[in-house]
Each structure stands twice: as C-alpha cells, then as structure tokens.
Structure prediction request, 185 residues.
Amino acid sequence: MLVEIETKIRKAEEALKKIHYSQEQISAREFHDYTTGETFSGDTTTISDVLGNKFLMFHELVEMSELKKMGIKINKRTLMESPEPTIYTAHFTAMEQELNYALLRKDFSWIRTRLQQHKTSVLENDQHLPEELRPKAEEILAKFNKLIATLTQSRLLVSCSCYGFCSVNVYPNSSLTKGLKGLGV
Ligand SMILES: [Zn+2]
Prediction:
C-alpha cells in the first residue's frame, strides 16, 4: 500500500505545483498513518476514498503540510491530540486550495458537492467547530458560491447568441434572461 500511496503523492504534488502551493514533504508512512488514525469528528472517509479521488488526495496533502508548518507531527494520533483550532485552520486552508484546484480544472460540480458538505457537516452540524473559526468557514462558502455563480453566469452569456447586448446586468435567474431563453436567444 505504501508504494501506491507514494505514487499518488507524486501525482498530487504535480497538481500542487499548478496552483503554486508551497508544500512540506510528506512521506507515504505519514500519509497512511494520518488518514487511518482516529478522528474526533467521526469522519467516515477511508484511505481508499482518498487514494481514489484526486481532489481528496490534494486536500489531505495540503492539510498535512499546513499542520507541519504549524509544528505538528503527522501520525495516527495527530487529529486526536492537536488543538482543535489548529486542525480546523489546516482543514480550511486545505479546503480553499482544493476548491482553487477544482476551479482550475473547471470541475464546478465537485465544487458544489464540497460546498454543500461544508455547509451541512461543518457550518450547521459540527459541535467541535471553534467559534472563532466560524467566520472563516462562512467566508469560504460565500467566496466559492459567488465564484460559481459568476462563472456559471459568464458561461450562460457565452452561450447566448445576442452578440453581447445582454452582457450588462443579466443574471441567470433574472426575468430578462428567462425571457431571452424563452425566445430561444
Ligand atoms: Zn480536511
């Protein structure tokens, strides 16, 4: 398994370079122990889930890097023994970088899925979330929701064949847009 992890880490590192993220070196052993260790949140994501998804691989590598930068050792007990604000700070940085990478790959459905999870599991139902970090969690949701809305809107405009006359103040759900769609524009 360590060989497979090593290969996946190398691949994820290539992705990290694309968004110019400066990472700490993470060994396959550290990666394995961190993702199979006990969690205080009861997170049911398995190491196979992570290894099978490029965005989750990316997320975990950033999270471990951020923890190392804050002087935390990476092992099976990291999540149980580190201060919760430290864990959440690393997780939120990982989430932002993961979503940046998904933006780069134009994977909007992944961003929507992750924002929904973030909203329900962290913002609405996580009793461990330190109150001082709630604004950061809300900022991530608002920022990426806005980006998604803007990008979806510009896609709509690009697909519109009116040669730009509707490119000012037209939003996906506005009556003008609906009207244009109704006319087959
Ligand atoms: Zn995380």
About this structure: The chain has a mean pLDDT of 87. Residues 2-182 form one domain.
